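Thread: Outer membrane lipoprotein carrier protein LolA, structure

OP (GT): Posting the sequence first so everyone is looking at the same thing. Length is 197 residues per the record. Can we get the structure tokens written out before standup tomorrow? I want them in the notebook alongside the other entries.
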Amino acid sequence: MNKVTQLARAAKGVVAARRFVLLGTLFLAACAGGQGGLGKPAQTETARVEAYLRTAQLKNVPFVQTWPNGATGGGGLTYRPGYLHLVYTAPHGMDLEASGSHAVFKDAQAGSETHMGLSHNPLGLLLGNPIQLSGAVQVTDVQKTPGVLQISMARRDNPSQGLVTLLFQDSGRALTLHDITVVDERRHKVLIQLQAQ
């Protein structure tokens, strides 16, 4: 074996070791992010968000959505426990209706209808009835600043399937949902910003 081959193999070994250490670090960070790893204040805020999602009754709230390519659209959002309905008026008529573990997307312009399962889609995290931010759902992060509460969640058994982050305005007494960010398994991000409620 010549010197060049020996150096190439040694370099590959170093790269593989670095990848292993990086993956190990990411794995440990993901495990630490579960609800069991959250401190008491974060657990309290998680319980507030869970209570909000179990009782929310949003009806035709105006929203603006930004797709992964930067394009925007909007319409009206309806949400109650176990049910989400987005009616788009821009860029053209579209409709997404989701309940439990299924969703139907209709595109009036294309004349198409698509049926989707939500068991592997991060959007499904918001459709439990009653919703539980424990067990199958893993709260990965809770951030609180004056007047704002943000919480992120993923599927405990497969967090790589995607992440949902909810941003609330927080008066101290009540929460008002402001943003929903969904990041799918390919790291494509969709942002839904709710307007005045």
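GT: Both are above now. Quick notes for whoever picks this up: The helical segments are 3-32, 40-55. The first strand starts at residue 58 and ends at 66.
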